[in-house]
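Hey, I'm writing a tutorial for new members on how sequence and structure tokens pair up, and I'd like a real worked example in the thread rather than a made-up one. If someone can provide the structure for the chain below, I'll link this post from the tutorial.
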Amino acid sequence: MTTYVPHTDTDKKLMLDKIGVSALEELFRDIPQQLRKAQLSLPEGLSTMEALEKMEALAGENRVFRSILRGAGAYDHYIPPVVRHLTGRPEFVTAYTPYQAEMSQGILQAIFEYQSMICSLTGMDVANASVYDGATAAAEAIMMCFDKKRTKVLLSENINPETLAVIQTYCRPHHLDVILVPSQNGVLDLAALSSLVDATTACVYLENPNYWGCLEDAEEIGKVAHEAGAKFIMGCNPISLALLKTPCQYGADIVVGEGQPLGMPLSFGGPYLGFMAATTKEMRRLPGRIVGETTDAQGQRAYVLTLQAREQHIRREKASSNICSNQALCALTAAVYLASVGPVGLREVATACVSMAHYAAAEFTKIPGVSLKYPGEFFHEFVTTISAKTADVLAKLEERGILGGLPVSEHEILWCMTEKVKREDILTVCEVLRSVK
């Protein structure tokens, strides 16, 4: 589309006549007069070269760490160059919502492949085309479960605090009773769960691995939920699914998670995507878009947006959610990443993560004054209790070019190890832990 810009007074008059106004000022009549006169404190304009120099100077103030040992919901994984190369193509970057299926077969197929991969990872029957992020996915899953009789939501207290905040925001206007189930030794307390679950429980939400990196007894937790007639929702790290049982094998009804580990850089927190998958029984309550495979008039394979009647923009009064968009480019990124590493490569990434984490934990705890806070098994995150102050340890690591773990308290650190962490980095942490009193 070409934008018309008037160059002369005659051109301007022709344009104004065409749109039915007598002066340019009439185009701003909806803006209050006092706002039109307001003086904005804006700097003078810059040339392209000056703007680039200014941006480079600002970028130069960023601190770039040679190694990142922090996770807590966003993880530093290796991204194959092919991922950025393919997803940076203009036809993907500029693609709009594929409402016209006959014009959007390429992007629809890409989303369909993403959904298929999520189903393979989770063992579920159906996945949507993604939602905004992992926290939103968890909250949307809970919205699928409650009704007039079941208004109690049970959450493990070991979930990501950001996810908890989003869930509470979603549940508040629906007057749902959100209860945190206590933990013991870093995992959900089964006895406490059994005492809380009842006929009014809509669902139980659990993250595995949980926020502290610990692996939960998901199968038993799912059984407790189902015995009370409640739905079982699992939040998962997608990389861990290459090694652990699938949520389907644990008995989950709905599976959610943050897709950032699948090919997306840390990027100051986004954009990311939330993946959602469910059993066939829950399919019609699954929010957002679902791409389906069908055949066209010639009998050839074709792709369409299916089950759109659930979406907010079509039948608003009966919609199961007001989400009517998705993170299509991020979902495509996840699909390209999974296709590029393949099942064997993904398993190797997960194996490297868990191996490096257990090696690091073993080395750290050899140092006097350092111990693991939780005794159970973990994936690639773990909490250490240290006699020194966490701030002193992290400051020393920053001097060595390492972003240390997340400070949980004055003497506790949540560490994360991915396949990008080197043995030398772990030994450097050990050296720092020994030196800080």
